[in-house]
Amino acid sequence: MHTAAARNTAPRPGPEVMAAFEAAKGFMPADEGLALYGAASEAARTGLPLLEVGTYCGRSTLLLADAARAAGVTVLTVDHHRGSEEQQPGWEYHDASLVDPEVGRMDTLPTFRRTLHAAGLEDHVVALVGRSPQVAAVWGGRLGLVFVDGGHTDAHATADYEGWAPHLAEHGLLVIHDVFPDPADGGQAPYRIYRRARESGAFAEVAATGSLRVLRRTGPGL
Ligand SMILES: C[S@@+](CC[C@H](N)C(=O)[O-])C[C@H]1O[C@@H](n2cnc3c(N)ncnc32)[C@H](O)[C@@H]1O
């Protein structure tokens, strides 16, 4: 596990990227963002693409993209851009400004594109617009990092884990957001895939920051 001293020497995004992250719509606090950036910087040294499930408006994508730019690799970010259950009208995380009035449904893709463009990071990201399991089923390449921050039901989190973890190269990093061991702090689906990864024997935990967990693939398995 990383110590506080190790975190102090960890790579950090530049101030413009950090300011763009802070200004972007999204849910990730800065300490978790810095931990994600550190994992992405390390994983990018494999030379393999970094994959995010759950683009939303690009808040976390900015950090992955900056780390990818520094290493000359590409970020792939998957989202159907229609929002998760808790982002629909009437739910806690709904943002009415993200509804497409013509279609009558959430559409976070335009905001995501503006976020990335304003930060000058468009060239380092490929947006995959679709349902995560469907995209995973047709994806054939190896990945240096898989960041799971998509749907938070058991069905979605499990499908994300089972769809994308097999593509993670040996020594690649699996990062899971919203891991809450105590049910009083939040939903349990991300915690359950985190436990599953640990118990599989194929992953070892390398860092924990807030609700973000970083695990390294140490062998084959799921
Ligand atoms: C918690 S948000 C992602 C937040 C983002 N990573 C950030 O830091 O700002 C979850 C996103 O996952 C997307 N999502 C949920 N289920 C999905 C699925 N099965 N396939 C693709 N995207 C999905 C939603 O549309 C939503 O934008």
Q: What layout of secondary structure does this protein have?
A:
Elements: H1 4-8, H2 15-23, H3 30-44, E1 50-53, H4 59-71, E2 75-79, E3 99-100, E4 105-106, H5 109-118, E5 125-129, H6 132-138, E6 143-148, H7 154-164, E7 168-176, H8 189-199, E8 203-209, E9 212-217
Parallel strand pairs: 1-2, 1-6, 2-5, 6-7
Antiparallel strand pairs: 3-4, 7-9, 8-9
Helix pairs in contact: 2-4, 3-4, 6-7, 7-8
The chain binds S-adenosylmethionine.
S-adenosylmethionine (SAM) binds at residues 26-28, 54-56, 59-60, 78-84, 108, 131-132, 149-151, 156.
Short key terms for the protein model shown above:
222 residues; alpha/beta; Rossmann fold; 7-stranded mixed beta sheet; 8 helices; globular; binds S-adenosylmethionine; Class I SAM-dependent methyltransferase; EC 2.1.1.-
Q: What does the largest sheet look like?
A: 7 strands, mixed
Q: Work out the oligomeric state of the chains in this entry.
A: single chain
Shape: globular
- Straight-line distance between termini: 21 Å
If helices are DSSP runs of H or I spanning 4 or more residues, what is the number of helices?
A: 8
**Class of secondary structure makeup:** alpha/beta
Name given to the CATH architecture? 3-Layer(aba) Sandwich
CATH topology: Rossmann fold
Reading side by side through the largest sheet, how are the strands ordered? Answer: 5-2-1-6-7-9-8
Number of strands: 9
- The amount of beta strand, in percent, is 15-25%
- Calculate Rg over CA atoms: 16 Å
Pfam families: Methyltransf_24 (PF13578)
GO biological process, one term: methylation
GO molecular function: methyltransferase activity
EC number: 2.1.1.-
